Amino acid sequence: MRVAYAAPASCPDEQMFVARVRARTQHGRFAAPQELARTFDVSLTDSTGDAHFAGQIAFVDLNGERAQRLVSGVTCDEVTSSLALIMALAIDDRVALAEAQANPASPSTQPAAPSAPPKENAPSPASNANAAPRAPLPRHPRLRWDVGANAGLATWDAPDVSFVYGAFIELGSRQPGWSARLSAFDTRQTKSVVGGSEHFATDFVRVEGCPVALSIASQIWLTPCAAFDSGLLSASGQGDSIRSTASKKLWAAGVLVLRLGWAFKERLIVGLDAELGVPLTRYDFQFLNPTRQLPTGPALGVGAKAGVGLRFP
Fold first, then answer.
1. Does residue 293 lie in a domain region?
2. Residues 220-231: what's their mean pLDDT?
3. Cα gap 303→276, rounded to integer Å
4. Which residue of 142, 157, 288, 300 is surrounded by the most CB atoms within 10 Å?
């Protein structure tokens, strides 16, 4: 036999579930990875209402039909124990049926012992529960998509602290784990000078990879990421402040991100980002009246963003 197990990070893992099954039955043997075996599909999810967790187990019953059991409870631990008991009972029923088929009673002894019917005719809890048709077990997606927007402050993409806003799309594992994000950002800054003003703008895209996610609590996780920014940096002057060099240049930066994420009802997501950025291209813009050179930003900067989005499916 084999277990296909899926549960939130706050629940007991697959090894703990298997240990609870073994504690409740001495029958059955768990198969090797490449060995054909009877499979029990076990899944646990966060729920709503009074019961905070829901679990389900699906397997092939004694009649050769797909059976499903549903369990709910306040804690994931008690739901896991209930599913382990159901699996152990199903294993024992299958072993009892195999023993009865291997040692059938002779026809002459069946009428003489009406008070002890053959074992295969004795109804079992599993067969009684299967009298009503069961709905097929829904398959939980292993991947998810997040779409949203974020905004914040940064210090490495303009001469001074700038306001940054943008949108993102992210692909990752359903349970806290790896993820990849693509973002588009825009930042604007205006500086007042004698006789006019100077305007800076940076439009860029960010490619971001996050190899792991550390679960802190139920639906709360911490994710370290590495990102690459690339875009167009522009500067212009108005009034008596006149530019004397080209106003647009290619711009790139490397960024480290530490994200604190939270999912509400597995649909609404909220994120807080702390960032450390290193510009890979830096320029000095020449302004006249007054005459001065202005660098685009420091060699190392920090930033912070807050974001909100929706998770699919």
1. yes
2. 95
3. 6
4. 157
Q: How far apart are CA 41 and CA 57, in angstroms?
A: 5
pTM of the model: 0.57
Distance from C-alpha of 15 to C-alpha of 240, rounded to nearest angstrom:
72
CA distance 187 to 152: 10
Q: Is residue 185 a part of any domain in this protein?
A: yes
| Assigned domain for 107 exists | yes
99 or 211: which carries more pLDDT confidence?
211
Same domain, 216 and 305: yes
Residues 164 and 261 in one domain: yes
Element (H, E) at 238: strand 220-239
CATH number reported for the structural domain that contains residue 243 in this entry: 2.40.160.20
The answer to whether 207 and 228 have CB atoms below 8 angstroms apart is yes
User: Mean pLDDT throughout 74-91?
Assistant: 88
Structure tokens at 141: 């997606």
**pLDDT digits 0-9 by tens, 230-260:** 999 888 777 654 554 547 888 899 999 999 9
For residues 84, 90, 92, 93, the Cα torsion angle rounded to the nearest 10 degrees is 160
Residue range of the domain that includes 64 = 2-129
